[in-house]
Amino acid sequence: EQDIIPTCRELGIGIVAYSPLGRGFLSLGPKMAENLADGDFRQSLPRFQVENLENNRKLYERVSAIAAKKGCTPSQLALAWVHHQGNDVVPIPGTTKIENL
């Protein structure tokens, strides 16, 4: 991040922030990993492995505390942070539920 972003800016290349909500982690919290459906590809990702659950919980609590101070959700905070990185940085959030759009 420290090298890539300045290089992209120097070359005039836009930056696309893929999965700015951590594949659902920042919208659902650490319990999300425990509730993934059978066959969900996220089960194979290190972030959602059992050995990372405690670290995920701590991270989510910290982000949630900052979001609460700002009067928003962790998801909104994450998207705002990405947006604040500059006009050349664009987040691509995704959802599986139409009501979340």
Low-confidence stretches: none
> How much β-strand is present in the residues?
5-15%
Radius of gyration: 15 Å
Roughly what percent helix? Answer: 40-55%
Number of helices: 4
Distance between the termini: 28 Å
SSE pattern, N- to C-terminal: HEHHHE
- Overall average pLDDT: 87
Q: Give the strand line-up of the largest sheet.
A: 1-2
List how many beta strands DSSP finds. 2
Protein name: TO33-12
Keywords: NADP, Oxidoreductase
GO molecular function: oxidoreductase activity
Domain NADP-dependent oxidoreductase: 1-101
Provide structural commentary.
The protein is 41% helix and 8% strand. The chain has one domain (4-100). It is mainly alpha-helical. Strands 1-2 form a two-stranded parallel ribbon. It comes from Taraxacum officinale. Residues 1-101 form the NADP-dependent oxidoreductase domain. One of its GO terms (cellular component) is cytoplasm.
Question: What key phrases describe this protein's structure?
Answer:
101 residues; 8% strand; mainly alpha; two-stranded parallel sheet; 2 strands
Write the layout of secondary structure elements.
Elements lengths: L3 H8 L3 E4 L6 H4 L24 H18 L3 H11 L4 E4 L9
Parallel strand pairs: 1-2
In short:
With 101 residues, this protein is mostly helical. Helix content is 41%, strand content 8%.
